[in-house]
Structure formats: structure tokens, C-alpha cells
Amino acid sequence: MKNRLKVLRAERDWSQAELAGRLDVSRQAVNAIETGKHDPSLPLAFRIARLFDMRIEDIFDDGESA
Description:
- By secondary structure, the chain is mainly α.
- The protein has a single domain, classed as lambda repressor-like DNA-binding domains (434 Repressor (Amino-terminal Domain), Orthogonal Bundle), CATH 1.10.260.40.
- 58% of the residues lie in helices and 6% in strands.
- The protein has five helices and two strands, in the order βαααααβ.
- It is globular.
């Protein structure tokens, strides 16, 4: 799944480790999500969206058009 996580993190000048700490996940989990190797669970997607004050669908793109 494509996502804007890396861009959003960079805009705030956060390292992967800093973002991981804010989300209570490992740095490796952040890397896997950013590179599209792993999709976040729904609860984690909600935490990410709340952290960036955005909607889930504004961060993650499942490739389907509405």
C-alpha cells in the first residue's frame, strides 16, 4: 500500500526512531510501513492519522479509486 508516511515524517524532521517512539512501535515497523513492505493494522493506522492530524485515507492509498 502506498503511503505518505516518510514525507510527513520528514516534514517534521523526525527520525524513524522518533516516529516509532511516538507510535509505540519499533523503528523496523516504521521502516516496513514506509517502504510498503508491511501494511499497518487498523488501530496503528488510526494512531498514525491522529498523530499527523489527518484522515487515514489522506496518508494511505490502497490503489482503489472511490
